[in-house]
Write a structure and sequence with these properties.
Three copies of one chain form a homotrimer. Chain A is α/β, with parallel strands linked by helices. Chain A is built from six helices and 39 strands.
């Protein structure tokens, strides 16, 4: 069952995965003093705090000078006395049995400290990179009445329609299309080739990944008596609140009337479909290739796995968890339920039924055996 | 079961949804006389037909002057005598018990009249908007031998290849790619960043949404004896007939030889995959994220829900209905069947089986109980 | 069961499909002598080897002069003596009963020879077409330090970032976005509007279809104690080895650290999602709309159907086959297994269980009948 919640569960694995992927050595693009590192991880230097390191390495490697590693697992204790690391993140209560080469940075939890170090470094690098994007590359198209914030980047071949309002530090990568009357808040990044239709409102600190389409006309067709379909115009819009992330090639339809809403802090993965007039609450995460039909309301802190389908016009309460590939067709009864299957029901019940599903031929044979006994 | 057909069923909900989303008040962008409105809804004015309204409102609201509402549900009768609406759509047979403020527009069915009013207004707004798109923005790229109809719009950064034929009123939004020898019929709209490969033929009154890819090479790879795959060139094309709608980021592969065909009036939602040499009949609707493998033929007036998968080389008869997330691997036997599940079978049978699936642990216990009784 | 493996099975159908789609007549865009054709199909001409043909036709058609067909099925023997074909591909051991009009090209297997002829022709046409794409169209954007190979094509509105390395015969279609420090090997084609993020490495002879997004930030968000999510920077990259094909609007996330890897000869269909740090082996084929969660490793020569979901952090051994719409949550035990269902298990077992699933109401009735008998 663990594994089946695949895309949900991945959030738990992010930290361990950093180590898995970390391989043996990771080189920084700058040098840090041990004091600077101690400040980041809330630790205390034992040794020369002016020493510099410029790469991360495992303690069991043939680590070169200039590297920092961590000591958490007692099995690796022997390495402590032989390693060539310049510094080691180490727990406050570890007592060394003899002298060692590396300086120490004493911390509460070396594993967590190492993770924080890597994440902090990553954020610095990413921030530095994004701040190199400045100014308006040519050719680009900026319509009449556009309001521009400070530190703006507009990439070549980007199109910004009439009366668009762009906040400070907005970064618009090449080939982005922004329709008329769009509003984009401070520090929002829109990657290459995203398409934002007219009247969309995007908050602060949002990230829109390449190829995402926000505000396209929903799938509204009224069946006619002759079997044809008539197009229903879609006059509403899309609102993304602050800190929202939208994955690559994800599509979000605008409302028929009113708005399609993605609330604060919610994260959507790639290739997701959000129908017209859908409303998604705060701090909800949705994995790739999930589809949500029109007018469905999703609460706060919901987790939805990959390839899930949600019917239109239903309500998903706060903290609901929906496993990958589930199909939800009616309102869950209460907050915090965990659902699986298509149509979906409680995950524990689903897994019990599924185990018997796998053994249905045997169950049928047992029924046959009983029938034979009773006949004779 | 209703709810499980999620994306199918939504077509029925479109009208009610207009009201759901309509909230309390909707402001027109222009003023209408009551006579103009009576003409739209086929009604008769009782009162001053020169009065003007500029917004829609509910009868149970604190509606302001300048608003028009409707009276359909007898429960709301008391509001008739207190509302500040300027005009009310009302059935022909309603007898008022005392004098009221609003003028009346007598119609057969006030609910339908209100819907028609809203839809008509929406269409006018949309038409007016699209007609503001005129001329050729710069920079754009138009190849040799391109034939251009009247009232053409080519947005900035659009690319139109050689020998392309563009009808009247064709609107090509920014970043659109149109390959060589493409034909596009009158009144067709192609939104930002759609990619139309060489030789594609698109009919009249079609809508291609942002990011759709039409005519890309199908997934044709011949397995070789050494375990590698050889690419099979795809020389065919894609034909979209009149009144076809293609959703955002949907992909339609061109034929190996011959054509991939989407017939008249058919509507495809977002993120759909159509394989090479697929043929889809007239007035068929397909919801988001459905995939159709190569060479499958789909009839007329078929309805397919979201996230459905259809095998290659099968035939789906006219009027078949396929529920969301179904997987169809063989030809349905007759017209008009309704299918669900993966592999799919008749929906009623599916739902019966699914109810027992949910109770499999109990069924197994009953078999165990029988076995115990017979043993003893 | 055959049909359910839909998108897998299609590889077997490619040849027959060429004939299905071939209709009645296919005209070459050039003329071939019979000797040239004999050279292509490894055959021997009986008759005038300088005769020219310029179309393919069926033997049972009213074939015009200038056509070449094939004779494989004895049922069509009578046509041999009446057809107007200029030449026929025919098996070496066929003995003619009387004189015929067409010249013969004797081959081992006429059906295979005909296929080879069509494929070879298709490849020539495609090669010729792609070689017409030469030079740098304007406006386009080429950053500092870009290394350009011979016979390069950069379409209008394409964006090539800083320090990009482009091999020989690289073809970059309009609206393509290529970030900084990307490397692209010889003979690789990138179709319109694909987005390649910074630091991606693409091998030789690759094809990237329109709208594909390669190297976007993965879905990495660490849950915080207050219910919000913190963004985990993604500093890794994507590597595509030689002869890789990526479908339209497919998305491939870059690694958190290290790399997301698609190995040599692997083919991905449209609208696929590949999570961060996924590794896919050699000569693996994956059909449309499949999603693979982060850090999963897939072996060589694996076949994955459409709309499949794979959990994160699992290992799929070499030669595994996964049927359409399956959900795989844990490691298959050995090489070469065939899986179906969600959660997936062995296909034979799945189909047996599914047959009983369809008859669950009857099974339940049988249990009820037994219960009644035992009660009375």
């Amino acid at each position: 069952m663990r594994s089946f919640f695949f895309k949900l569960i991945k959030y738990k694995y992010i930290k361990s995965q950093i180590f898995t992927n970390f391989a043996n050595c990771f080189e920084f693009m700058m040098k840090f003093t041990l004091q600077a590192i101690a400040d980041i991880v809330n630790g205390i230097v034992e040794g020369d705090s002016n020493l510099e390191v410029w790469q991360l390495a495992k303690i069991d490697d043939l680590a070169a000078a200039g590297s920092i590693g961590f000591f958490a697992n007692p099995r690796y204790e022997s390495y402590l006395y032989t390693t060539q690391l310049t510094a080691i993140l180490i727990a406050k209560d570890v007592v060394l049995k003899k002298e060692i080469l590396p300086a120490l940075i004493r911390v509460d939890d070396p594993y967590t400290a190492f993770t924080i170090l890597l994440e902090t470094y990553s954020e610095v690098v990413q921030q530095q990179y994004i701040q190199t994007k400045q100014g308006i590359e040519q050719p680009s198209f900026v319509g009449k009445g556009v309001q521009k914030g400070a530190n703006l980047y507009i990439g070549a071949f980007a199109y910004v329609g009439k009366d668009v309002i762009l906040g400070n530090n907005v970064k618009i990568f090449p080939h982005t299309y922004i329709g008329d009357n769009v509003q984009i808040g401070d520090d929002t990044i829109i990657y290459a080739g995203a398409k934002i239709y007219d009247h969309t409102i995007i908050g602060k600190h949002c990230t829109i990944h390449a190829g995402a389409v926000i505000g396209s006309e929903g799938f509204g067709f009224a069946p006619q008596s002759d079997g044809t379909y008539r197009n229903i115009p879609q006059l509403g819009k899309v609102i993304l609140q602050d800190n929202v992330s939208i994955g690559a090639n994800t599509t979000i339809d605008r409302a028929t009337l009113g708005e399609t809403l993605i609330a604060e802090g919610t994260k959507l993965d790639n290739l997701i479909q959000i129908g017209h007039n859908v409303s998604i609450g705060k701090h909800t995460v949705i994995a790739a290739q999930t589809g949500i039909a029109g007018s469905t309301k999703i609460g706060n802190n919901v987790m939805i796995g990959g390839q899930v389908g949600l019917a239109g016009h239903i309500n998903i309460p706060n903290k609901t968890r929906i496993g990958a590939q589930a199909g939800v067709g009616k309102d869950p009864q209460e907050e915090g339920e965990t659902l699986l299957g298509s149509p979906a029901f409680a995950v524990k019940q689903y897994m019990k039924s599924h185990i018997i599903f796998r053994q249905l031929p045997q169950l049928q044979q047992r029924v046959e055996a009983l029938e034979k006994i009773l006949k004779s």
